[in-house]
Amino acid sequence: MRLKSIFAAFTAIAVFCACTPSSADNNETPDDKGQTDPTPTPEPEPKPDPKPEPGLPETIKILAIGNSFSADAVEQELYGLFAAEGQKVIIGNLYIGGCPLEKHAANAASDAAAYSYRKIVNGTMTKTADTRMSEALADEDWTFISVQEGAGYHGYYNTTYNGITHTMEPALTDLLNVIRSKCKNARLVYHAPWAAKAGYTGTKFSYYGFDQNVMYNMICTATQEVLKAHPEFSLFMNSMDAVQNARTSYIGDNMNRDGWHLNYTTGRYTVGCLWYEKIMGKSVVGNSYRPEGMSETTAKVCQTAAHEACEHPYTITDLSYFEKPADEGGEEAKREVLAQWYFTPERAMNDGCVKTWTGQEKLGVYTYSNEPGERGYYNANGKGKGKLSYIQIDKTMWPGNSAGLSILDVSNGGQPVMCGPMPGDCWQFETTGKNDFPEGTQLHMIYTYNPGKYGAKYWMIEYKDGNEFKPVPAFEQKTETLSLSSETITYNMAFTADQKIVEFTVTLENPTDEFVVRQRCCSEYQVNDKWFDKPNVKCVSRIAGDPSNEAKPLPTMSRVL
Length: 561
What we know:
Blueprint: E1 3-5, H1 13-16, H2 23-26, E2 59-66, H3 68-74, H4 78-84, E3 88-95, H5 101-110, E4 113-121, E5 124-132, H6 133-139, E6 144-147, E7 158-161, E8 164-167, H7 171-182, E9 187-192, H8 203-206, H9 212-229, E10 233-238, H10 239-247, H11 266-280, H12 296-311, E11 315-317, E12 335-340, H13 345-350, H14 353-358, E13 367-368, E14 373-379, E15 386-392, E16 404-407, E17 416-419, E18 426-431, E19 442-450, E20 458-465, E21 468-471, E22 478-481, E23 488-491, E24 493-494, E25 500-507, E26 516-521, E27 540-544, E28 556-560
Parallel strand pairs: 2-3, 2-6, 6-9, 9-10
Antiparallel strand pairs: 1-11, 3-4, 4-5, 7-8, 12-28, 13-16, 14-15, 15-18, 16-17, 17-27, 18-26, 19-25, 19-27, 19-28, 20-21, 20-24, 20-26, 22-23
């Protein structure tokens, strides 16, 4: 494997890395460029007995004091990795979204009831709101307690860069003093999260000049400074290395769900693998656990990315030698179809969809209405129970033929069509099966959208979580001031004139009774870069899909099993 050295490892690294170098690494001879000669991929090590390493208790207890990055690291995949080896584990997370060390230290000093305390026992998570840090620290005899910087400053220890100055001190010292005073036997862990996805436009990425390499290097430097200042850390979790390693493989720069947080498959699994190996002190490569729907090959890539991070901290290991299997078209999980819409002209007529969408008896006829509310609906006529609707704002101030609906009457038609969208208008999919989706349910959506030559360009794709619509995390939100209209909009999907497959999976944070997805118009700005300040009947688009063409999937709402 070819290693690209980012930082020269300092002499104390062996104190902090709980991994033992493999024979393959010992046989590598660096050249004068700091690289190593390619070596064969090592075979997975024989799986040891499912017993903890010397010094670890029968039940390992891990508490993270953090934010959404600690949630990504420990709440999802870590338990499964321990369970696969027969190792008992309890995992806790003191969570405040984006929380920096300064706030954690203040909360510790005041004992504020400020946390969501997430705790995983026997694979089941419970959440307790308004929890004090002291309560969580006393809840278990914690084996490991981790801390991390938040608010995007994990690349700043005592640093000035790009006009920004930030220090972790004295907050880090103060927080550690509280932890050590209350949990004298716990081993302290420092967590160094990952760099953002290239192209991410969030404010926190601006601290690093929107440069992934700069951010990665700054995290490496800051982590070394933390460990030098605080030798009381028994372990450090160099998640930044594991994620960066995985990015060199065929996975690519696709480890995030929104550019910042880890995705629900490869991202969270890779970092979970790192935590497992660091804590257990043995290679994670070969662990039998992998997320539902993930291929064996991709799981090995993630495991190897984590293992190499343990072996070579502050270094990016090139994993491009992994070959994606030819028959692996993705990591599609097993799904239960909840609602599906089947498009042909014959089915549209026979199933009554023409009537419910347009109120007419014939295909291809436009029905115009400027009244607000649901203007037409198309019941799921493939599988399951559901409804596709078009919901519009009040357009009665414009002429009566400003907005309308039709159903395509060509040979591959039967598809719902609309014209004249304005900001606030929505395509909406929803199940109607009297479902009960608890917190943590994973729901999948796929549909084909065709904006045509004149369709609206900017949309927000959202899903219902509890009683609230939330932007789909898989699509990056952007805020932009449009040149022609001078309006400032926030959107997460900008279409071109080409037909596009929209696909995503969401995980519910709140229970809900039905799966609802909507595509909400953000501007009358069209894909041909024209703009009108009123409904334009030429602005026509449709929900597409061809049952005889897999490249044009039908709208389908599913539950991930």
